[in-house]
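hey
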C-alpha cells in the first residue's frame, strides 16, 4: 500500500465526459499520441480504455499491421468499445475484459502499454504493474498520462491526480525505471517507463 487514496472507478455513465468536445483542447489527446512516436505494426495495450477514445487514435497510428488491445474491467465499457469498433471499422482493435488485478494480456507481446487517466483508479496497482510488466516486450514502454497533482489550478479532484514523485515511488520498485517525463500537455504529465532487466 502506498498511503495514497485510490479513486473510485469511473462508471459507464462517465463515458460522456470522456467523449466531451472540450477534451481536445483541455487534454490535447492527438498531441499526446504524436509524442509517443508510435509506428505502424506496433502492438499497444490501452489499459483502462473506457469508451475506446484513445484506442481509436492509437489504432490509426499502428495501422493494419499493428494491434490494439483495449482493456477494461467494466462490461459496459467493453460494449462501448465494441460499438466503436463496428461504427468505425477498427479492424486492429481487440476488446479485452480484464479484472482489477489482471489485464489478461499475452506475455511479452506489447510494445507500449498506455494508461490514460486510469492508474489512480487501480484498486490493486502493484498487481497490475506486475502483470503489465510480464506482457511487455523487453524493450517495451509503460506510459501513464496523469493529471498533475503538483498544480492545484488543474480542475480535477485530488484523488484523480498523481505527482511525478508518487508515480516513481510506486512504479519503479515493480521493475521499471522512469525513462522520460514529457510536460507538453495542458493538464497531464506524460510519464514513460521502461522495464528494468529484473523486477
Ligand atoms: C477515467 S476512465 C479513462 C478511460 C480512457 N483511458 C480515456 O482516457 O478515455 C478509467 C477507466 O479505467 C477502467 N479501469 C479501472 N481499473 C482498471 C483495471 N484494473 N484494469 C483495466 N481497466 C480499469 C475503468 O473501468 C474506466 O473505464
Amino acid at each position: 500500500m502506498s498511503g495514497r487514496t485510490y479513486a473510485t472507478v469511473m462508471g459507464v455513465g462517465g463515458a460522456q465526459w470522456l467523449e466531451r468536445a472540450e477534451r481536445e483542447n483541455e487534454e490535447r489527446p492527438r498531441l499526446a499520441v504524436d509524442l509517443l512516436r508510435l509506428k505502424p505494426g506496433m502492438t499497444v495495450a490501452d489499459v483502462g480504455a473506457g469508451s475506446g477514445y484513445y484506442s481509436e487514435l492509437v489504432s490509426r497510428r499502428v495501422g493494419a499491421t499493428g494491434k490494439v488491445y483495449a482493456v477494461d474491467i467494466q462490461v459496459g465499457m467493453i460494449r462501448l468499445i465494441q460499438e466503436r469498433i463496428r461504427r468505425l471499422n477498427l479492424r486492429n482493435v481487440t476488446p479485452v475484459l480484464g479484472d482489477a488485478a489482471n489485464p489478461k494480456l499475452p506475455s511479452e507481446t506489447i510494445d507500449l502499454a498506455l494508461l490514460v487517466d486510469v492508474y489512480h483508479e487501480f484498486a490493486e496497482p502493484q498487481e497490475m504493474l506486475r502483470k503489465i510488466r510480464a506482457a511487455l516486450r523487453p524493450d517495451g514502454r509503460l506510459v501513464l498520462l496523469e493529471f498533475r497533482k503538483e498544480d492545484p489550478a488543474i480542475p480535477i479532484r485530488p484523488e484523480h491526480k498523481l505527482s511525478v514523485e508518487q508515480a516513481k515511488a510506486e512504479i519503479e520498485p515493480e521493475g521499471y525505471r522512469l525513462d522520460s517525463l514529457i510536460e507538453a500537455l495542458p493538464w497531464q504529465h506524460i510519464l514513460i517507463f521502461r522495464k528494468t532487466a529484473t523486477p
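The radius of gyration is 15 Å. The chain is about 30% helix and 25% strand.
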